[in-house]
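Ticket #4471: structure output looks truncated?

Reporter: J.K.
Steps to reproduce: submitted the chain below (328 residues) through the standard prediction queue, then opened the result file.
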Amino acid sequence: MIMRTILRTILILTLVAAFASAAPDEADGTVVAVISGDVFEIAILHADPRIGSGVETVRLADLKLPPAESAEGEAAREFARSLLSNRTVSLDIDNDSEDGRDPLGRLLSVVYLVDPDGGVNTTHPVNRILVDSGFAEVDDSEGDEFDPADWWASDGQLSEDGDIRVVINEVESNPEGGDEDNEWLELYNDGAEDAVLGNWTLTTAGGSEVSIEPGTILPSWGFLVVRADGYWLRNSDELVILRDETGAEVDRTPALDDGENDDKSWSRYPDGGDDWAFVEASPDGPTPPLEDSETVTYLDDEDEDDNWLRWSDQCDAFGPWDVSDFLQ
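Returned output as attached by the reporter:
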């Protein structure tokens, strides 16, 4: 009886240790700087005893990226900046390395995005996203605890929440040159599962409605540009609501004013975030990172209070609506 109890205790401790070694909650914090496609700095919020407070440098485990000074390496860095800047992330730190660090003292980790509600996206670690997006290759090291095959192990399995979060990510109501036929907005899937958008609709404050074609799929972490013939987005007091095929509201923009006939648009910054900024337009791709000397206009609460939604039943549609120019 005593021996059975001891064995049971050993088994439980073994299972607990195995679970802990794979848990993506050994540290978390906010990304404050992206150095390269696989190296960034994080302001620690919570951590295990291996690290303290302050700013730590993290390197994504088991990845091979192009040289940082190459065009491909710079593209990987910009993608990582658009994905990670100012985002909260959770770290699974390598237990096989000394203090969880590589030879340069960086925390060797598998990194997970944390959503605004505090949930951790365990199905699509950032390491995997870099590979899926073509910016990195798997380089499985025998010296760490990780098995990159685990990053794809949950494919085809939906979480309880579905891991789908589609938002209106960018609005260009006053493009450079003429507005007719050139106005567009961008949807972004900030979730871990592909989203089926067939028969979803976009309704504007001016009364226009755009239907998304049946069969349209927006991949996880993908962008979809929606265009329409004629004029369909107003330059002032514009507000757009996204609804699914049942008519349920999925997302809406704040009231937006764009009086500048230029190459800038209103965009969530960073992609999928809660803040809106007037930045360089980037249809079909991540919002470009800001240079240190660049200034940007943000939409604050006072701006939103100064605008209001004015629906008009007198507004006629300006031609047929269709969807085009989206990433496969």
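Triage note (M.O.): checked the attachment and the full token line is present. Residues 131 and 137 are 6 Å apart (CA to CA).
Status: closed, working as intended.
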